[in-house]
Write a structure and sequence with these properties.
The protein has 168 residues and is α+β, with helices and mostly antiparallel strands. The chain contains 5 helices and 6 strands. The chain has a 6-stranded antiparallel beta sheet with strand order 3-2-1-6-5-4. A hairpin with a 5-residue loop joins strand 2 and strand 3. It is globular and about 35 Å long.
Length: 168
C-alpha cells in the first residue's frame, strides 16, 4: 500500500479546512441528499462527502458506510487531494497504490473508486465527493461530467454552510 502523498499546499489546505468549521458537525440534509442522489444515479453502494484533515478522513455526508471516519493513511480520498480532476480507480486490486490496502483486502472490499476533489477558494481541496463499489467498473465521459457537477454542487453547499456559520 502506498500512503497518500502530502500536497504541496498542505498547510494552507488544512488552515482552510479548519477555518470552515465543518469537521465533526452534525449531518446536513442538503449534503445528505447529494450523496443519496449520487449513489442512486451511479448505482453504487457507497457515496461520501469526505473531508481530509491531518490524520483522518471524516465523512460529512455518507450513504452505505457505517464508519464516520478512517485513517488518512488508508484513505483513497487523500490520494485525490493533489489533483484537480476525478481520481478514477477502476479496479483497486490492480492498482499498486491500493491492492493491499485494508479497505480493499477487508471490509468494505473496495474495488472501484471515483473521487472528485472538493476545491474551495484559492484552489485548495478539502476533501472529495466519492463513489465506491465492491466490483470493478469504469465511468464514461457523461458519468464523469455528472460527478463533477455533483461535486460542484457539494462545494457550493459547503461554502453556504460556512457563510451561515459565520453569520450566526
Amino acid at each position: 500500500m502506498i500512503k497518500p502523498p502530502i500536497p504541496d499546499n498542505e498547510q494552507e489546505r488544512l488552515a482552510l479546512l479548519y477555518e470552515l468549521l465543518l469537521l465533526d458537525t452534525p449531518p446536513e440534509r442538503r449534503l445528505d441528499k447529494i450523496v443519496e442522489f449520487a449513489a442512486a444515479e451511479f448505482d453504487v453502494p457507497v457515496c461520501l462527502i469526505s473531508l481530509v484533515d491531518a490524520k483522518r478522513q471524516w465523512f460529512k455526508a455518507r450513504i452505505g458506510l457505517d464508519a464516520c471516519e478512517t485513517s488518512r493513511d488508508v484513505s483513497f480520498c487523500a490520494h485525490a487531494l493533489g489533483g484537480e480532476d476525478v481520481l478514477l480507480i477502476e479496479d483497486a486490486l490492480h492498482d499498486p497504490r491500493f491492492h493491499d490496502n485494508p479497505l480493499v483486502t477487508g471490509a468494505p472490499h473496495i474495488r472501484f473508486y471515483a473521487g472528485a476533489p472538493l476545491i474551495m477558494r484559492d484552489g485548495l481541496a478539502i476533501g472529495t465527493l466519492c463513489l465506491i463499489d465492491t466490483r470493478p467498473r469504469t465511468l464514461d465521459k457523461l458519468a464523469l461530467a455528472i460527478l463533477r457537477s455533483l461535486r460542484d454542487l457539494a462545494v457550493l453547499e459547503l461554502g453556504a454552510q460556512q457563510a451561515e456559520a459565520s453569520d450566526a
